[in-house]
Amino acid sequence: MADDFSLSDIKKIAGGEELLAGNFGIEVEGLRVTHDGKLSLRPHPSIFGNKLTNPYITTDFSESQVEIITPTFESIDEAFDFFSFMSDLVNVSLDKDEYLWFQSLPCILPKSSDIPIARYEGDEKAQESMDYRKGLAKKYGLRKQLISGIHFNFSFSEDFIQKLYDNSCSGKSFKDFKDNLYLKVTRNYLRHLWLIVYLTGASVACHKTFNHECVQLMDRQGKSGSLYTSTGCSLRNSSFGYKNLKKLYPSYNSVREFTDDVQSYIDEGVLSEAKELYTQIRLKPKNPPDLLNSLNEDGVRYIEVRTLDINPFYKCGLIKKDMEFIHLLLVYCLLKEESDYAGWQKESLINEERVAVSAFDPDMRLLKDGEETTIKEWGLEIIDRMKVMLEEFGIDCDGILNPMADKIRNPSITYARQIVKLVEEKGFIRAQMRLARSNKITSNYILNQTDLIYDDKFKKYVPIALPGLKDTCATDDVFAEFRGSNLCSIEEELRKLSEEDDNSKSV
Description:
Layout: H1 7-13, H2 16-20, E1 22-34, E2 57-59, E3 65-69, H3 76-93, E4 98-101, H4 124-140, H5 142-145, E5 150-156, H6 158-166, H7 174-200, E6 205-207, H8 212-215, E7 220-221, E8 226-228, H9 255-267, E9 281-284, H10 291-298, E10 302-308, H11 320-335, H12 344-358, E11 366-368, E12 371-373, H13 375-391, H14 398-409, H15 415-426, H16 428-449, H17 462-465, H18 480-486, H19 490-506
């Protein structure tokens, strides 16, 4: 396959700033839980308004599953700051005894019949949304539907792609040229996504009330119904995570081949519709509801990376350095020459699932073009090649890449191993609730002690994200009453946490 996007060709045309320029967005799902770590069965908070029309705060599968969506920004900093602010708004808008669950695997679950599917009101779209979720519940089970994660949306700058096109001799239309760019990135990402699973994996424990198949993967038993894995780093990305029932390998040679394959899965009854294809990276068109037709007619608009677990160690479930690394990896996927190994797609899935379940098993091996290798050997090779390629464009990336190399050399500092330590000390539910409460305190502090909600960067978004404020605030200042009534006592929450820590030490 001819490569219109080789490193040498791009280097002649564009500089580092142009290569890194792009558009960024974030989507995160998270459960609402009660103070004792149980799934909240209360309706989606009314302060967030209509789930179908709120562009920033909605639900995913369950009524108990909040989804935060950012607009598109031209920098990671802007996207991350908006998302962090929006997560603070969500956290403090919940009832005082409700919390966001900062973990991809669920909390303590009730019997399946009590898990609430998201309820929608309004037009025909509302009924379609509920019917789709009922179909998923029947097919995959309600418990598995509560697995949550992070999606990172990205597109290269249109000016950058246009510049590459103007200097190419491909003879293709601009649409086909752009599609081929994103298809190359997608293929290379699939080959390398196991590294993201390893570096950002954080779903290593669950409660005994979770899905039976996933519970069976946990080879250790902890306190108060806790189960965890001694070898895995991301059970969400395992074969028993949120995956299609049948392993599917759509072609990524062209958009037409991809859409034809997906349509065949629908025709065969394997998928109900195109969005049920749970790939690790998605090609996103101008009109996502009409995904296949829009891809063919309009082409690829951006890509959606779906590999990241929720990170419980930061108040919004995401660390910016991880976003920055994925951005660099996507750039690398554009620049890197492709392997001609025929079985690459099946091999990439094998590697993904091996790392998810057995990352810390010293005997586990990855497959690289049919040959065995280790996480350390291949992972450090990728990091080194990324450095070399990016340095050719004058991009200083040591601050992002070196910490990732450290995690490869020293698995004990990965998120997964740190979570295992917490679970061993406190149990899964207790450890996660301690983090959830601490995160809510942090969000309260930020919005109570700073003027962030008055910042021009965010102020205009608040009435849209929290339309329920309009019902309670008569003044133009929509924040005055909100700050007075919704923010809990920071001092009281800190006192409770301190007392609990003291009690745990004395036991």
